[in-house]
Amino acid sequence: MKEFKAVILSSDAHEYRDILLAEALPGLSIEICRDVEQAEPHLADCDIMFGTPALVSPLISRAPRLKWVQSMWAGITPFLVPGMRRDYILTGVKEVFGPMMAEYVICHMLIHERRFLHRFQSQLVKQWDTTPPGTLMGKYVGIMGIGSIGRAIAGAAKFFGMKTRGFSRTQTQCKNIDCCYLFRELTSFVKGLDYLVCVLPETADTTGLIDDALLQAMPDTALIINVGRGNVIHEPSLIRALENGNIAGAVLDVFQEEPLPPDHGFWETPNTLITSHTAALSFPGEIAPIFVENYQRFINHEALMYQIDFEHGY
Q1: Per-residue pLDDT at 36
Q2: Helix 116-124 vs helix 98-113: angle between axes, to the nearest 10 degrees?
Q3: Does 259 lie in the same domain as 172?
Q4: What's the pLDDT tens digit per position in 263-295?
Q5: Closest C-alpha among 98, 46, 99 to residue 70
Q6: For the whole prediction, is pTM greater than 0.90?
Q7: How confident is the model at residue 227, as a pLDDT?
Q8: Which of 86, 190, 273, 293 has the greatest count of CB atoms below 10 A from its CB?
Q9: Are residues 153 and 232 in the same domain?
Q10: Number of compact structural domains in the chain
């Protein structure tokens, strides 16, 4: 049987290696690296890379035998830089982050409805706060991006009796989505929303979708939650909308530049909660099985799961 050499690039490389070794994958030799420097000696005869995009992407051009890259993250933007090599199979991660993302989104919608942050401020000044809370029941949530993560969020929203809208490039119907909107219907999509949840990938088409015009079309009671990619939001527009009270608030997990610079306006923007790209982390026990399944497909010359289309960017 043909032998393949895989390089694992991750701060959790040892844990990933132990999982893969337990699977006794045929014909696979494994090298583990925690950084780019450790990977350098293994690039010349590397067939497969399994790692985080930030570590793997700088090495693509230096691995002449490379045939397949399995990302450990849902986001694959570092692999899509114009001019980068594309003569290999790139596979992403799906059907993993949905439950964690749904948990995050529902958590912050409940915090907003139940006024938890306001009540905590009242507690700090020993004030008995009897302001009536809201409820998710009957509220409108618009989900930008109705892939596996968006569908999981929609299912959780339905559990709480919410009314759901979906926004997609091509889809016109989806489970747990009451009504789907296409790109040309973006303004209609956001009108009347109580919550706008962004889970879109980073592509040329999604950059700057949430701008001044769109924010002005939203109710001033709406809350934006972004767990997708930072490029979707035109950041100066959102800061203006929050400062002027055009929307109720924003929960932001992702940004155009990460870590968010200390002098960025978001740190001091009112009604803004920053969660530092922690909405859904990659855990080896959940990601490694995707590699295992795809490796079996790879050696059997079958189509791999979650293959990325370089042109579309997802």
Answers
A1: 95
A2: 50
A3: yes
A4: 999 999 999 999 999 999 999 999 999 999 999
A5: 46
A6: yes
A7: 98
A8: 190
A9: yes
A10: 2
Residue 210 has what DSSP assignment?
Answer: B
DSSP result, 114-177: TTHHHHHHHHHTT----PPP--STT-EEEEE--SHHHHHHHHHHHHTT-EEEEE-SS-S--TT-
Q: Is residue 144 in some structural domain? A: yes
**161: amino acid identity, one letter:** G
Q: How far apart are CA 285 and CA 263, in angstroms?
A: 37
Give the span between the Cα atoms of 82 and 25, in whole angstroms.
34
231: amino acid identity, one letter: N
Residues whose CB is less than 8 angstroms from the CB of residue 47 and which lie 6 or more positions away in sequence, other chains included: 4, 5, 6, 65, 66, 67, 68
In whole angstroms, what separates CA 85 from the centre of its chain? 24
Confidence of residue 172 (pLDDT cuts 50, 70, 90): confident
Structure tokens at 76: 């694959």
60 plus 209 within the same structural domain: no
Q: Could you give the CA distance from residue 252 to residue 233 in angstroms, rounded to a whole number?
A: 10
Residue at 76: amino acid letter: I
Asked whether residue 60 falls in the same domain as residue 10, the answer is yes
DSSP β-bridge partners for residue 224:
196, 250
Is residue 305 in a domain? Answer: no
Same domain for 117 and 201, yes or no, is yes
243 occurs within a structural domain: yes
> Which pLDDT score is estimated for 302?
98
User: Looking at residue 304, what DSSP letter applies?
Assistant: P
Residue with tokens 């507690």: 123
Residue range(s) defining the domain that contains residue 226: 98-274
Q: Residue written as tokens 């035109």?
A: 234
CATH number at residue 8: 3.40.50.720
Burial class (CB in 10 A: 0-12, 13-18, 19+), 256: middle
β-bridge pairing 140-144 and 163-167: parallel
Enter the tokens of residue 93.
């991660």
Residue 133 lies in a domain: yes
Q: What would the mean pLDDT of 25-42 be, rounded to a whole number?
A: 97
Q: What percent of the chain has pLDDT over 90?
A: 96
Tokens of 154: 């929609």
